[in-house]
Specification:
Blueprint (H helix, E strand, L loop, with lengths): L2 H19 L6 H8 L5 H6 L2 H24 L5 H18 L1 H7 L10 H23 L8 H20 L11 H16 L1 H5 L2
Helix pairs in contact: 1-2, 4-5, 4-6, 4-7, 5-6, 5-7, 5-8, 5-9, 7-8, 8-9
């Protein structure tokens, strides 16, 4: 099997094992066995366990960015764009909880890996693009974009974390999708409300 194919098969196996058994059920040998490759292949390709997890986290950040981009495509205004990226973020966390948790485990990854840094930046560029719409519509002063970007990320990451910890209170009158829409819409229209009101 070509090296690239072996690498992709191993990362596919990591995803399968994570979804089935969680992080505690993952190892270099288990990934090799699940991928049907030699037990030395993960070490040769990734160096060590952290290297393999980092490569998988890069993949996960690409999927997160794609999920947010899919939601963003439905938005026509700055507030809608900001809310849409939040819904994409929450949907990814709901659909791939083990990958989502791994992506932010600096203790398990190589946090200074250039590919990981680039993958993370590309995924969060989707949020920046959404906020740029609000800037272009004069709903958000350009100098406030970095602060609103951090606040937006903190909101949806916090909601995702509460849900994954099973600490989120029950929401009367709707399920998770409805709650995600309500929270992201509330935040987006609140943070951009001053500019909207002045129109």
């Amino acid at each position: 099997m070509p090296e690239r194919d072996t690498r992709e098969a191993l990362l596919d196996a990591v995803g399968e094992l994570l979804n089935r058994d969680g992080l505690s059920g993952l190892s270099l040998r288990k990934a090799a066995a699940a991928a049907g490759v030699s037990h030395g292949a993960p070490g040769a390709l990734f160096g060590d366990f952290a290297g393999m997890l980092t490569a998988y986290a890069c993949r996960a950040f690409h999927r997160l960015g794609a999920r947010m981009t899919d939601e963003l495509a439905t938005a026509t205004t700055g507030p809608e764009a900001l809310a849409a990226t939040g819904r994409g973020y929450l949907a990814f966390a709901r659909e791939e909880p083990e990958a989502f948790l791994l992506m932010f485990r600096r203790d398990l990854l190589r946090p200074h890996d250039p590919e990981l840094i680039a993958a993370r930046a590309r995924s969060f560029s989707v949020l920046t693009a959404a906020l740029q719409r609000a800037v272009d519509e004069e709903r958000l002063p350009r100098e406030r974009l970095p602060l609103v970007r951090i606040a937006s990320w903190a909101l949806v990451h916090g909601v995702a974390g509460l849900r994954l910890a099973d600490a989120f209170p029950s929401h009367a009158g709707g399920g998770e999708a409805e709650l995600a829409r309500a929270v992201t819409d509330l935040f987006a229209h609140s943070v951009l409300a001053a500019a909207e009101a002045s129109e």
